[in-house]
Amino acid sequence: MEPGTIDNLSILYQSSDFIVVNKHWDIRIDSKMWYEPLTLQSQLRHRFPELADPDTYYGFRFCHQLDFSTSGALCVALNKAAAGSAYKCFKERLVTKAYLALVRGHVSQSRVTIRYAIGKNTTEGRTHMMCIDGTEGCENPKPCQSELIVLEHGSYSGDPVTKVLLQPLTGRTHQLRVHCSAIGHPIVGDFTYSLGQDSSPYRMMLHAYYLRIPVRGELIEVRAPDPFVPAMDGNWEPQRVTRRLEDTIQELK
């Protein structure tokens, strides 16, 4: 997946009510800043000017969020009724989301349930970050749960890494990034939660791979192509497969 430009937006799914895009890494969903002209919103306006809704500030209704650094499947509602239907699915926890990631080190267990409560970091210089309960400056931590399933062990630029499937069972800001860091396996290229140390990779290796939203009268189910394969990134060298990705997705369903 090449870096984002105004005219290379990848569409995974489209109907009269919804579009699911494959969001590029290092692109914000929207921005009011003049120096950030390239956003997902601007890509959508360029590709689908006729679908922009004048009743919304950004022109499009985003059904959920992805971090600036995260790529992958993101659903956009094309009208108010569709947005309400999707919101209901999220509220009733009917949505299935699964992410792919490369994490530092070799995860020894085949499956890990991570239950650290997450709050806002109030430490000076880190107020843009989240933190786990019990750390200094962690404000208002709330219960969180993520599932980590090991897919492959290998190396990235010669360093040991593990390819994993991550499923957030709650929806806190930066949840997967904080949880992976908390168990000693931070996501490769996560500049923020490595405190600026992990800066060599060209991107953070977190990707929203699978999305299933059973809205009324329509089943949205998409996969955003896996970017963590040697053909896409020669620095990633798989060495041992633990579980097949497709088998794991079938289990989630």
Automatic annotation (TrEMBL):
One annotated GO biological process: enzyme-directed rRNA pseudouridine synthesis
GO molecular function, one term: pseudouridine synthase activity
SUPFAM superfamilies to which the protein is assigned, alphabetical: Pseudouridine synthase
Top-level taxonomic group: Eukaryota
Domain Pseudouridine synthase RsuA/RluA-like positions: 18-182
CDD domains documented for this protein: PseudoU_synth_RluA_like
A Pfam family reported for this protein in Swiss-Prot or TrEMBL: PseudoU_synth_2
Family according to the record: Belongs to the pseudouridine synthase RluA family.
Protein name: RUSD1 protein
Gene: Rpusd1
